[in-house]
Amino acid sequence: MKYFILWVFLLACLMGTSVKAQVFMIERGSSSFTFSNIKAAVDALQNNDKLYLPPGIFSLQSYTWTGESGNQSFRSTLAITKKVAIYGAGYNQGANSTILQNGNFYFSSSASGSTITGVRFDLHFILLNASNVSISRCKFNAYVNSQEVSQNNYINECEFMERVQMSNESGAVFTKCIFNYNYSNIFQNSTLTNNLFTTTSGYIF
What we know:
By secondary structure, this protein is mostly beta strands.
């Protein structure tokens, strides 16, 4: 919590200097680094870093990921490949929300053990063989799925506006989430506790 309060304070100072300033900050031990765009910040991440995302709408359309092998080409894609903690400004804060759109957002296998909170995803969110990822207080306006074998991921207090397909998941836990799209949701080998399904049509696997 103290890191979140520090980030809010720093953000307020930056906004007081320039309303248009959008700064992505990495905290690494006692050091901090700032970047002007999310791609540069993600590329600079090291294991156990903390990444703070400012309010704003950020498109991934111009980004390419070379995949875990390093010789592929995933267009319009941003991938987390380190074990890190990511803090957005919130998904239900109006103009002060952190919103990612136009593309795909991945957690790869090497990002296992990461955490993310406070982001709205207007794009595809994918767990690629990623395990023990903690996702909290995020909103998903496009589909969420797991690819290859992802294990023991924890999703808490999130809102889903599109389908969730955890067909390659083992041991996922969903708690206190809201599901607004109930057609063809797949929760393979998952545990659901204290969640809300807002419609009764469709089907769940």
